[in-house]
Amino acid sequence: MPLNLKQNLPAIELLKKEHIFVMDDLRASSQDIRPLKVVVLNLMPVKITTETDLVRLLSNSPLQVELDFMKIKGHQPKNTPIEHLMEFYKDFEIIGKQCYDGMIVTGAPVEQIDFEDVTYWEELKTIFNWSRTNVTSTLYICWAAQAGLYHFYGIPKYALTAKKFGVFPHRVLDPYQQIFRGFDDEFYVPHSRHTEIRREDILKVPSLKLLSESDQAGVYMVMARGGREFFITGHSEYSPVTLHDEYVRDLGKGLKIDIPANYYDDNDPTKQPVVRWRGHANLLFNNWLNYYVYQETPFRIEDITTLGSL
Fold first, then answer.
1. pTM for the whole structure
2. For residue 220, what are the CA distances in angstroms to 114, 154, 196, 230, 308?
3. What is the DSSP letter of 43?
4. Minimal CB count within 10 Å: which of 8, 168, 246, 278?
């Protein structure tokens, strides 16, 4: 089944060029199917890029998904046109009145700031708390994973001596978890961050389950509440060129930046990136939607009404 998106979202035309099938909300409304409702809290500054990366993965599911985008009301991004935000994004004041089958919270370029000093921290905490009663399963990515673990479980973050930057091998610690259905014993994930969470802190909290880690990149995936929450420190959603764009951007700013590890062919930035994570990324999002969103979503009033009319 396709992904249902609002008409004119830039991701639609971008993904059509990749022969990925998505359809707008007008066509979707003509089908007598209750789609999964998923909301994305997009904290990244270049929102269209992140939208496209996530839509690319969510659209590969056989399930029909209706996608909403939410923004932080108290923060105005500098790299996304205000017209785009007004047309495609909703504030929590609107989103918070609804229930959702799934939610994705993206990373944000604020990881070197203390959580309490982030300008929208109070609003974010409100959204996190709301998700526990109004969302079946939430996927927290990169900085959002650190923020969620800190807010709910008191897990601290630590500054790294150098940016964790590249594509790193990871291992599955519990292969019988459904989130890993179809995974190989070793899989690759892109990382791009200046901070980390640590294994020993996770293991001190009985309600947290460490599911995957890397010798080079550390903790990767933590699960809580039986799959109602997943905290993922990497960027499985990244496109083939995202790390390259970040590398070129940082070089242009005169920042000290290493070549992203395990990324370019022959470790040569003049050559093409080698994509090692695409298969895992598709499995991750498909498994999450299928086993933790679709199969765990309780009946709602509209479902019961429909069943009663059959």
1. 0.86
2. 21, 18, 10, 10, 44
3. -
4. 8
